[in-house]
Amino acid sequence: MSFPEFVVFRTFLNQIEAALAKTVLDAAGIESFIRSDDCGGMRPHLWMGVIELLVHTEDVAKAEEVLGNEETNPNGSTIWETPPNPD
After folding, report:
1. What residue ranges define each of the domains in the chain, with the CATH number in brackets?
2. What is the Cα–Cα distance from 85 to 87, expressed in whole angstroms?
3. For residue 87, with 0-12 CB atoms within 10 Å meaning exposed, 13-18 middle and 19 or more buried, which class applies?
4. 0.85 exceeded by the pTM?
5. What does the pLDDT look like over 20-53, one tens digit per residue?
6. Cβ atoms within 10 Å, residue 51
7. Terminal CA-to-CA distance of the chain, rounded, Å?
8. Parallel, antiparallel, or unpaired: how do β-strands 6-12 and 32-35 relate?
């Protein structure tokens, strides 16, 4: 049995931003996981400065499309914004 490979797709400074990004990916049908070192959520103050969002290797391109990247979302927001109207 082969297990899918995961990569760290994004890192966040707090659980709220990581959960928001995960929710957006979930809504797009992309499986993702949040990894942080906080004793399973029991000690949130113990996180070591990085909360990681993991995705399957084959879903990285689709996740970039959903959440954007430096070119499509230069302000780094995890919330996708509609492009401005060219009018």
Report:
1. 6-67 (3.30.70.1530)
2. 6
3. exposed
4. no
5. 999 999 999 999 999 887 776 677 666 666 789 9
6. 22
7. 54
8. unpaired
